[in-house]
Design a protein that fits this description.
The protein is α/β, with parallel strands linked by helices. The protein has helices spanning about 1-15, 25-35, 40-45, 85-95, 110-125, 145-160, 210-220, 235-245, 260-270, 295-305, 310-320, 330-335, 350-355; strands spanning about 65, 75, 75-80, 100, 135-140, 165-170, 225-230, 250-255, 275-280, 325. A hairpin with a 5-residue loop joins strand 1 (about 65) and strand 2 (about 75).
């Protein structure tokens, strides 16, 4: 059926390219069982259909975008705007060839990003079109109530000047009580006694179902093309999928060789949810010192491949079929993180060396978030013939 073909194509594109050696046997068998078509056929299917397609990153032999479970194409490499302070960097990123911009209300810089987009379009209106872009924003924790969620989405669209969003995510599964002064970096407020400034008060007056219905309404009203999640665990993804009329297409999570989360990525794919990697270089040093980027193993592979350490870490994600967000405030690195990523491959030995760095380390961690420690289930078999 179409559903099964779409799932197989998505799994192929996300997880199958040159990654068999690094997949565990327990769920590699599942992928083999549900992936009988020749890869060349899958590639043809992915590359046809939706127009316009994201720009190519060089003389490529592989798709440089993924097809989400609802059929929408998303560039395989996107540009993250966290901590970005220069609108011209956005324009330069678009000039270099980035077409996915990852934004959020929490970042506080969406007007700046919008100016960069407008400047790029104005530079050549006949060539540079808004519809060629894939623009993401996120709903923060204190905006989960339906009326606040819609206001946040509308504000993001206005600030970005994009008329609609290609993807809107729930930034975190945890809802903060509006007006409580909860800080992203705060600890949970004590149940009794004085509450220190910035401590987190969770919102028990809104449910995930109410929040998700508000997300679906944005799709119904044409303000958003795709909806998804960020930092959601397998239990939380399962819950949303079970209650959803419009399924989530994305779960944006921290992914890099220290935190590969291979089984979780495969399980999400089996649910029709594409994992999108943030922090692929192990940073961006906003929370913990980055000991991944200069790691001797990363350096050794980079020297062997004739690439930079950053390029190797981006390639590690791309080669295992995981779409990735790169972030830089340096113009010279814009090209470095994008161009030519699809026209070479790391060897199985090099991928295995990077895989061996897995240690479960997170660079993005906050006091109020309790990460799930229960084992991730095996991928869900397709029940449709």
């Amino acid at each position: 059926t179409f559903h099964k073909l779409m799932l197989v194509s998505a799994l192929k594109t996300q997880l199958f390219r040159n990654s068999r050696a690094s997949l565990s046997a327990s769920w590699q068998a599942w992928l083999d069982q549900h992936s009988k078509r020749d890869m060349s056929t899958a590639n043809v299917q992915v590359q046809q259909g939706d127009k316009p397609q994201p720009v190519k990153t060089g003389n490529t032999n592989e798709p440089d975008y993924v097809r989400l479970s609802n059929g929408v194409l998303m560039p395989l490499i996107g540009y993250g705007t966290f901590q970005l302070q220069d609108a011209d960097m956005v324009k330069q990123a678009l000039e270099v060839g980035y077409r996915h911009l990852d934004c959020a209300s929490l970042y506080g810089n969406q007007e700046l990003v919008g100016r960069g987009i407008a400047s790029w379009i104005a530079a050549d209106p006949s060539k540079n079109k808004r519809e060629d872009l894939f623009v993401t924003s996120k709903i923060f924790n204190d905006e989960h109530r339906p009326e606040l969620l819609r206001k946040s989405a509308e504000k993001s669209i206005a600030e970005l000047g994009t008329k609609y969003l290609d993807l809107l995510l729930l930034h975190w599964p945890n809802a903060f009580k509006p007006g409580s002064g909860s800080s992203f970096h705060g600890d949970v407020c004590p149940a009794e006694g004085e509450k220190p400034p910035g401590c987190v008060v969770f919102d028990d007056e809104v449910t995930h179902e109410q929040t998700w219905r508000a997300m679906e309404k944005l799709v119904d009203d044409g303000l958003v093309r795709c909806i998804g999640l960020s930092n959601f665990s397998h239990k939380e993804v399962t819950h949303i999928c079970n209650i959803a009329r419009i399924k989530p297409t994305i779960n944006e999570i921290e992914l890099h060789p220290f935190l590969a989360q291979k089984k979780f990525v495969a399980w999400c794919a089996s649910m029709g949810v594409t994992c999108l990697a943030y922090g692929p270089l192990g940073g961006p040093n906003a929370y913990l010192p980055n000991d991944l980027l200069p790691h001797p193993t990363v350096t050794k592979v980079a020297q062997e491949a004739g690439k930079t350490n950053g390029q190797i870490l981006v390639k590690w994600s791309v080669q295992r079929g995981v779409p990735v967000l790169v972030k830089t405030g340096t113009a010279s690195r814009l090209k470095e993180n994008l161009w030519g990523m699809m026209d070479y491959k790391l060897t199985d030995e090099q991928m295995a060396a990077l895989d061996s760095l897995e240690n479960g380390k997170r660079f993005v961690t906050v006091p109020w978030k309790k990460w799930e420690t229960e084992p991730v289930p095996d991928p869900v078999p397709s029940t449709k013939a």
